[in-house]
Amino acid sequence: MASDRTPHSFPTFENAEDERRHRKQRLAAAFRLFGQFGFDEGVAGHITARDPERLDHFWVNPLGMNFKQIRVRDRILVNHEGEVVDGNWPVNRAAFVIHSQVHAARPDVIAAAHAHSVYGKTWSSLRRPLDPLTQDACAFYGDHAVFDNFTGVVLDLEEGKRIAHALGDNKAAILANHGLLTVGQSVDEAAWWFITMERTCQAQLLAEAAGTPVLIDAEQAELTAAQVGHRSSGWYSFQPLYDWITAQQPDLLED
Ligand SMILES: [Zn+2]
Predict the structure, then answer these.
(1) Tell me, what's the pLDDT at 153?
(2) CA of 202 to the centre of ligand 1 (A)
(3) Per-residue pLDDT tens for 82-111?
(4) CA of 64 relative to ligand 1 center, distance in Å
């Protein structure tokens, strides 16, 4: 019997209002997934989505609201000066400082994700890029940076600029002694890169604890990077997670 579900295809929008609603839905779902995977640590962590009309504004999670309880209607909109212009909860200063500078430096970036997940922050203390140890790790081959200048909680815009500069054209950065940062041309893509990068850190930590892993050679790593590391692969990989979390927790879509 044929499935009553339709395959996923990249969305297009008639107007900015529809596109905004879509981004907010994806954001709420991404937070629920981050919560489900245990990426939250107190009030740390943020995912942002650029507004489709006001391009220097972004939607973000309210400071202090549990990832596992965020709904579409809870999103706050922050302007380029760090003021909340839609919503009545405060914004995390570090979220504004890091994400505003990343969004400003990278016009192609629609969404950015950062959290203090355990394997990401553990790996970040080594201040090394990830190696191509697995097929999945190749998504980051030649496409992530290490920002090795830890100076405490990021509260200064200049520090945000340095992080954006270190990120460069890459899809991800390892913030030393802090955690992971990923970006994408959709919320789906940024969230997926974060999820798979966290697991890639876990895999390398496990492999190095167990022995001396053998790297995928450069030619194969490059080929695989073009396959699993393409932005359409990032977007597509998020779709089954979105379907699952919205089926499990439909209240996340309350607007
Ligand atoms: Zn942080």
Answers:
(1) 83
(2) 19
(3) 999 999 999 999 999 999 999 999 999 999
(4) 14
